[in-house]
Amino acid sequence: MIQVYKADNTDFSMNGDAVLNPIECTAHFVLNGIWELEMTHVIDENADLLNVGSVISVDTPYGEKQLYRIYAIDKSDYSISVNALPIFLDSKNDCFIYDTRPTDKNGQQALELMLAGNGKYSAKSNITKINTAYYIQKNFIEALNGDDENSFMNRWGGEISYNNYTITVNERIGSDNGMRVEFGFNLLGINENIDMSNVVTRIVPQAYNGHRLANNETVDSSIINNYPIVYQKVIKYEDIKLKEDASEDDIENGVTVCDSINTLYDALRN
């Protein structure tokens, strides 16, 4: 049974707000890559619940009632197509690592340190390899599987699978078994596209030379509470500099030159 939860409905232990009967629903699993759900649904009373931020519940080869959050929609006169990611990937936006340094840890210990301080996400790992890594000002997914040499995957390795708010990174997760239910229609009409992948509602501002606000201070959007999760990201402002970092012609070129660190903090907040 495929269900949908409104964006403000977070009680996933209960049934969703509606049961869906999609034209097509496809789950993709790429080893240590993108896991994604694609679904097309006819325009009916339940289609109104398919909005960016809504959550789809569907059984997959990796478990029953797997939760996927919609991040993009494409709507025509007759159908709506949505793209959704495993709900664990919310951690890309609302699980931020300010300074964590797993030292001489195995996989399980490292993941626990990386997720420490949040009450939502958890991790499992059978990796016994001992290693060390530094994570400073990164979201959890960057720290887990980013291009940085310190990423968990580069330090400890393993294969990733998602089970709602729990991630498993084991030596092996087994084979990928796809699931696909598909019927086809040729539909013509007006299209509406919404994509939330570049939305940011909380920033960690960074000035030239890496200067950031003290005490892990962030700057929030005035409408941050209009969204079901926080979308947090480091934003670099290379045109804000301390006086000792500035060049002679910076002011002429529109660079904000600050006499003190407190003045720089004010510029970052603005």
Could you explain how this protein is built, in words?
The protein is mostly beta strands and 270 residues long. Helix content is 11%, strand content 37%. It is built from five helices and 19 strands. It is globular, with a radius of gyration of 22 Å.
Provide the fold topology.
Elements: E1 2-5, E2 18-20, E3 24-29, E4 35-42, E5 55-60, E6 63-75, E7 79-86, H1 91-94, E8 96-100, H2 107-114, E9 122-124, E10 135-139, H3 140-145, H4 152-155, E11 159-163, E12 166-170, E13 179-182, E14 192-195, E15 202-207, E16 219-220, E17 232-237, E18 240-242, E19 256-258, H5 261-269
Parallel strand pairs: 9-12, 15-17, 18-19
Antiparallel strand pairs: 1-2, 1-5, 3-4, 3-13, 4-7, 5-6, 6-7, 6-14, 8-10, 11-12, 15-16
Rounded to the nearest angstrom, the radius of gyration is: 22 Å
Write the H/E string, N to C.
EEEEEEEHEHEEHHEEEEEEEEEH
Low-confidence region ranges: 176-192
Number of distinct beta strands: 19
Helix content: 10-25%
| % residues in beta strands | 35-45%
Shape: globular
Count up the helices.
Answer: 5
Q: End-to-end distance, in Å? A: 48 Å
The major pleated sheet works out as: 9 strands, antiparallel
